[in-house]
Amino acid sequence: MLAKNIGTVDRILRVIVGIGLIAFALAGPAEIAWKWIGWIGIVPLVTAAIGSCPLYSLIGLSTCPVKSNA
Asked: pTM for the complete prediction?
C-alpha cells in the first residue's frame, strides 16, 4: 500500500484539473485532433482518490501535513 503523500489542497486541485481535462475530452471542439489527451485527467482523479502519488514517492515529496508527536 502506498503511503499518503497528498495534502487537502493538492487533492482539491487534482480533482479540479482532472474534471477539467475529462470535460475537455468529452465536450471539447471536434476539430482538435489531440482531444484524446484530455483522458489523462483520469490520473489526477485516481491519485486524489487514493491520496497517494507515485511520482511524489519517487522524488520524496509530500504535501501532507506533518503529524507532530507533541
From this structure: 0.82
